[in-house]
Amino acid sequence: MERPLTGSMRPDGLPLSIKDYEDKGGYQAARKAVTGMSPKEVQDLAKDANLRGRGGAGFNTGMKWSFVPMGDSAPRPKYFVVNADEMEPGTFKDRMLMEGNPHQLIEGTIIAAYAIEADISYIFLRGEYKICEKRLAAAIAEAYSRHYLGKKIFGSGYNLEMRLHTSAGRYICGEETALLNSLEGKRAIPRARPPFPQVSGLWGKPTVVNNVETLCNVPHIINNGAEWYKGLSRSQYGGTKIYGVSGRVKTPGLWELPMGTTIREIIWEHARGMREGYQFRSVIPGGASTEFLTEEHLDVQMDFDSMQKAGSRLGTGTMIVIDDHTCPVGAVHNLEQFFARESCGWCTPCREGLPWIANILHAIENGQGRPEDLEILAQHTDSLWLNKTFCALAPGAMEPLRSALQIFREDFIRHIKEGKCTYGKNGNNLH
Amino acid sequence: MNVRLEIDGKEIVAEPGMTVLEAAGRYGIRIPTLCYHKALGPYGVCRLCIVEADGPGLDRMVTTSCNLKATEGMSVETASPRIVAFRKTILDLLLSATVFSHPLNELAKAAGIRRSSFGTEKTDKCILCGLCVRVCRDSIGADALRFETTGENRWRVAEKIRLLKERCIGCGACAAVCPVAAIRFEDTGPARNILVYGDVANTLDLVACSMCGTPYATQASIDSVMARIDCELRKGIKKLCPECSRIIYAGALAGGFPPDVSGPGR
Predict the structure, then answer these.
(1) Chain A hits for B46, Cβ within 8 Å
(2) Are residues A138 and A247 in the same domain?
(3) Which of A17, A39, A300, B116 has its CA 20 to 30 A from that of B157?
(4) Which residue in the set B47, B63, B117 is minimally distant from A348, CB to CB?
């Protein structure tokens, strides 16, 4: 099984130096793209490979690039931003990619920036990722010293600067327009769309924001072509995917597997099943802002369409497993508390609604729930839905709650009827 | 070219670039909103002006009408059952976050809310719509009002509004745009008090009208207006209170132009 993204990483977890990386074929793709291909060709190749954004929304990456105005009349400078602000609960795939092979990300960024003729690129890195920061900074310096960044890279006429920016730390910064506000030194609040960032983004200039994992795929597509890339996958979407499992499984972790691997295979073959004494009950498949799935969905393939059909989303592809000893009400309360805290407070329903949801869940978890609370929660999952709020944070927060109210309805009712949590003190956490 | 659309079953002709909220307003269809002001444009924060829009590529989309451009063939419903239900929830949440204020209570009554479902925590009227912050920063240019958060909520955009004394010019624009009167100003003889959430946040001296001698505006706000006027025009401008300027200019209309500002007072 081919693992283009992680196959060349060192087993000891240390990063590949620029020499190691080049020995394994690194920077060949960037050289090929910048000196031998037109930006349009790079865009088309990404489109042909059916590369989808790995940050959660799953938009076609080549398509996203193609919205940027090109040519001499385009506004300058153009910006390329790497979204490395990985803050989704339960998600840690980008950290592994950046820690293990920072040059892969830099190379992917060079190619993607070239595809939109960007002049300046930023890596917007989560502030807590101190190891990533150190390794990326060192790798960027190495790339500059070999003239892979800066003026006339690879001897071509293309110039690209790269800067590393560490976030001050808010979940909302992962939202592409809030990220741009933050990068401009403003409060991290989402912007109204249109205009889309591809037309008017950072400082009003054309900007593309891509996820780390998405970009790490790009060099391999350039090297091996679209057909090879599509062949890696078990579904219509190209490539491999970094899948992750956390929760009470035997070996939590991350694996690079063909796109479209089933949930069952990931949990039972790669994470080696549930720990002794724990039964599988449910799973949040793609980070905290996706809907719970249950046993009946275990054979669903983890790709964009199949997950949607099953009533959830692929999201970041890193799942949190809920076992039979974990109180689902407590788990949902934990998640909603996170979202309520991370709401930027910009629009009314999110700012006022999420804290109330967290309050109600807190009451139910502690045995003070009222029968009508379930009705109020259900009503909120509807009123904080897409387009009713300014951005996608609150709708994302409602996804686990909405599905929990159906799947774990009996648990909610029991909490209210018995006036206490029946899972004991271990039930409150997600470990 | 003008755009034809339908709002609540009514045929509407909108100018190009107009939003659904503006187009509806022109035909007397009232969509409730708290964070929209025509001097400042759409903001999309209070979410009350939400509507259901159908048409090519819209698929009964639920979205705010303040930033939704009117397009040919669009069909909009401003009070479908799900819109009404959503608005009720928003009003319920706003009520639970504020103390009694006029427009909010009337809107809530109209939506059929007798009592907030969530109990009240806050002690002020502010709905954090941001109009005062925007008018001060974008229209006046003083940038004296800020969103502020403290302690546990410090990551939020806003918990309350704070006035920076040293930047405030006392123009009163914030009080003029505030939909719930959380910011007000009071002129007490020669001084103006700016009240944020009922507390005096700033006090500025008022300048006397050159005709009647009534204190009427702060020096800083006059300077700010003057700085925006062409220097030729600036010479002819006299410092007049609203009442005196009304008399002078009404007289000018009757008796010719330019107005005689040096004439006798009341």
Answers:
(1) 347-348
(2) no
(3) B116
(4) B47
Q: Which residue has the tokens 């006397």?
A: B208
H or E element in which residue B216 lies: strand B215-218
Supply the DSSP symbol for A420: S
For A158-196, the pLDDT digits (tens) are 999 999 999 988 899 999 999 999 999 988 899 988 899
Closest CA of chain B from A60, distance in Å: 19
- Cross-chain Cβ contact A356/B94 below 8 Å: no
Same domain, yes or no, for A31 and A177? yes
Nearest neighbour of B155 by CB, restricted to A170, A382, A390: A170
CB-CB neighbors (< 8 A) of A182 in chain B: none
CB < 8 Å to A383, chain B: 85-86, 89-90
Is pLDDT above 70 for B265? no
In a domain, B206, yes or no: yes
Parallel, antiparallel or unpaired: strands A79-84 and A207-211:
parallel
CB–CB contact B157 A341 (8 Å): no
By residue range, what is the domain housing residue B61?
3-79
Nearest to A387 among B62, B93, B147 (CB): B62
Q: Do residues B68 and B146 share a domain?
A: no
Looking at the structure of chain A, the number of domains it has is 3
- Asked whether residue A6 is domain-assigned, the answer is no
Quote the minimal CA–CA distance from A276 to chain B in Å: 40
- Give domain status of residue B164, yes or no: yes
User: Which CATH number fits the domain that encloses residue A418?
Assistant: 1.20.1440.230
Which of B79, B94, B119 is at the close of a domain?
Answer: B79
Quick one: pLDDT at residue A54? Answer: 93
Contacts for A28 with CB less than 8 Å, ≥ 6 apart: A219, A223
Strands B61-64 vs B75-77: parallel, antiparallel or unpaired: unpaired
Q: Tens digit of pLDDT for each residue in A104-120?
A: 999 999 999 999 999 99
Strands, sheet with A293-294, edge to edge from the N-terminal-most edge strand: A253-258, A240-247, A318-323, A280-284, A293-294
- What pLDDT is attached to residue A431? 40
Looking at beta carbons, which residues of chain B come within 8 Å of A379? Answer: 85, 89
Same domain, A311 and A358: no
What's the pLDDT at B250?
A: 86
- How does DSSP assign B217-232, residue by residue? EEHHHHHHHHHTS-HH
pLDDT tens-digit map of A229-278: 999 999 988 899 999 999 999 999 999 999 999 999 999 999 999 999 99
Whether residues A317 and A342 share a domain: the answer is no
CATH number at residue A275: 3.10.20.600
- Residue B102: pLDDT over 90: no
Quote ipTM for the complex.
Answer: 0.83
Q: Report pLDDT for B154.
A: 66
Residue pair A2/A240 in contact (Cβ under 8 Å)? The answer is yes
- Contact status of A341 with chain B (Cβ, < 8 Å): yes
> Model-level pTM?
0.89
Whole-number pLDDT of residue A427: 54
Q: Do the domain assignments include residue A267?
A: yes
DSSP assignment, residue A161? E
Closest residue of chain B to A388, computed from CA coordinates: B63
Best residue in B76, B89, B94, B150 for a mutation probing chain A (most A CBs within 10 Å): B89
- Same-domain check for residues B138 and B243: yes
Q: What is the CATH number of the domain that holds A54?
A: 3.40.50.11540
B190 part of a folded domain? yes
Task: Using an 8 Å CB-CB cutoff, list chain A residues near B118.
Answer: 356
Nearest to A345 among B85, B117, B157 (CB): B157
Is A213 in the B-facing interface, judged by CB distances under 8 Å?
no
Which of A344, A347, A379 has its CB closest to that of B47?
Answer: A347
C-alpha dihedral, A49 to A54 to A60 to A65, nearest 10°: -100
A374-399 as b/e, with b when 16 or more CB fall inside 10 Å? bebbebbbebbbeebbbbebbbbbbb
**Residue A348, min C-alpha distance to chain B (Å):** 5
| Chain B residues touching residue A346 (CB < 8 angstroms) | 45, 157
For residue A220, is it within any domain? yes
